[in-house]
Sequence to fold (766 residues):
Amino acid sequence: MTTITPNAGQTASQASDMLATVSSDEQTLRVLLKPHLSVRQALDTTDLRVRAACGGLGTCGACLIQTVSGEFNPPTLAERQKLLPEDLAAGMRLACQLRPHSHCTLYLEHPAPHSAWKSLDPTQLYHASGNPAISEHFYGVAVDLGTTHIRLSVWNRQSGRRIGTRYSINPQVAHGADVLTRLNAERLDVQDCRRIGQQAREAIMDGIRDILSRDMGEITPVLAALGKVLIVGNTAMLTLICGNSGDSLYQPENWQSPIVCLPTDADAWRQIWRTPHADIDIAQPLAGFIGSDLLADLLATGITEQSQPMLLADFGTNTEIAVWDGTNLWASSVPGGPAFEGVGMRNGLTAEAGAICKVSASGLQTIGDAQARGYCASGFIDAIALLLDKKHLKPSGRFAEPPTEQGFLLQADVPKSAIFASDIDIFQRAKASTAAAMAQLLALAGLKVNELDRLWICGSFGQHLDLNSAFRVGLLPTLPSERISLLANASLAGCEQLLLNPAGPNLLNEIVQRARTINLGGVFEYENRFIDNLRLQPMPIEEFQ
Amino acid sequence: MLDAYIQSYNQAVFETDKPAALDVVNQALSDGFSPEDIVFKLVIPAVELMMTLIEKDPDANLAQHFMTAQIAADVTEKMLEKFSKPPEMIGRVVIGAAYGDLHSLGKRIVSGCLKSLMVDVVDLGTNVSAEKFVDTAMTENAQVIAVSAMMVHTATSEKGSLGVRALLQERGLEQQIKLAVGGAPYRFDPELYIKVGADAWAPDGVTAAKVIVDLIREVKP
Ligand code: B12
Ligand code: FES
Fold:
């Protein structure tokens, strides 16, 4: 049973969405407001957050914001209690109570101090029913420790209430964009290794504190009542956070076999976190390079409970792919390469403000409508699709006319829209390794693309992705959009289920029992598929019939 | 006389269009050209042309390298079976992916280019120990050991090309057997091949074939 609602095909904005222009003295943002979200909730997902010390109930009064123009809901009871009538008359409101009825302009005089943490849209996360049997230490935390991002949520496990969600860049990125470079850094000296692991622990606690301070207004007592922390992630990240050496991951023998990730110093860890009662639990990875984040994806999507064949891909530095044939699961991972996270490209960016996230014949669109600073993966894929359509680029990956030293400028007056031949080459490799892996796993399972009942795209990669562009360049098999589901926070949703659903661990176990891990390094046809898939064209038709 | 074929074959290879390239070869065969002509006048010149093109053109991409090598190797292999007498080989190379490394694609391109240039290739596969490289090179009388490593740690490990160098030294084979390396880490650090004790490296398969042929000629004039 799936209790979450993925985005079918596209994350289109709706007519009922209101556009808010929000300014502070430092920046101006344009934010789309969904009708079910307050202004605070919408801003919590951006760089410009209001101050807050309660869960948005209107009890702390910290989230003051000035309305400048537009129509809004009338002041709530909480606002009339917290704000003076003259302030209300002057347009002051509490952002957590405020819902615009038209496009609007807002001014934020005292934004929250800058932080890397942002809230996630909870509509796609897990819905828990609560567990009255939990009588003490009833807070719990679910963590998805990704190579590039950390996502987490804090829960009242007893009532099943989610207190808050956050995501941020993993500070370990500073040690190397890809998993091995990070392990390599660790390999150089034991101190370094510890430090990198410590850094992830600190980051997680920082995120927890951000939630507690903003969404509950108290920290220490809640930490003292924290009973469980559950962490999913890829094998390398889990190895590091446990304080283990990554040496075992270098051995090809371990690539396909389970690797045990257990904290070496659980007591010290609890002490530093000031969570004396927290059971810190690591969801064990499937194999050397298939993490428990993939298992969490599978749990969240409920694929393995279906009788229909499905394919799941979690794009990232390490792209994990699983094919479910109705009985068995075929799982593998490929180095999608930091290419999908914008690293390595001359004008590559992660999906952050200023990243070109959509490209069409009519122009470029950036995240937050900010000035273009480079491409994130979805924008780059759009750009390649457009260049192919316009015949500026050939399926071989070469430009019809060699670009100048400035690269191929997609928009003449935007220097950061330049694309270089080497970027295309890097992308082709990443694309080929991913598409070939999908085709290979399907072949092993004896399935054709058109037999797939559903294709799940997990991870934030899918957030801005234009499916037609992805089909056009051959990154995804061409399927009708109603058979494609995007689930940005699948790993966290699965981790939440594991934390809160008493049946979770059993479900996980069943998935593990059904899983066959495939080492593509040992599959000869994979090589041929890789070569075939280097071409920038829709996936070869043989994979379809 | 092969001119028309040469042009369309080169075009197909350049555009990484394998079916089109194979069509040209089949057409030439059915038009009565000999397998020898096809290899020596069509395929090898195309590889050599790609070498010069790629040298001049930093934008040549992986797909093109692959196609050049792949098509050349495929066609050569098929044609060799049909040769009236076996061709003379330039020399012999033992190739494989370094210990701990399962990336086999890089060496595949290199092998493809070598084969089409009439170099005998003994492919040891992936995850190959230094001992196996050297032992095989000795029993097979190879002039060159070629070690492919796609990851930093497999390129720099004592069990990789450093290990091969140590064994060559130990067994006094350094004059008879040369060591070539390649793979992603070498492309990031062009000095790396010296640090791992290699005699030469190359950034791509087409150049690799040239570099390795040069090494063979050093040992076997
Ligand atoms: C395809 C691929 C795979 C495939 C390999 C399939 C196969 N049968 O080969 C699979 C999925 C199995 C794989 C696995 C892994 N991979 Co991998 N892989 C790649 C990828 C995308 C392409 C590599 C490739 O085959 N290129 C094609 C070759 C032909 O191109 P090339 O490297 O440029 O080779 C040319 C030259 O170097 C030269 N050359 C090559 N060899 C030689 C030898 C000689 C003697 C000479 C002269 C020249 C020469 O000629 C070649 C042809 O032009 C790269 C990314 C990239 N951008 O390179 C990552 C990459 C190499 N992988 C990487 C990683 C981390 C892994 C994994 C650990 C992780 C994972 N989850 O998958 C595992 C490790 C498995 C193991 N123990 O070996 C990292 C290495 C990072 C690092 N710091 O070292 C890379 C760089 C991706 C990344 N940025 O994260 N991988
Ligand atoms: S009153 Fe709005 S967040 Fe507390």
Observations:
- Residues 122-282 of chain A form a domain with the Nucleotidyltransferase; domain 5 fold (CATH 3.30.420.480).
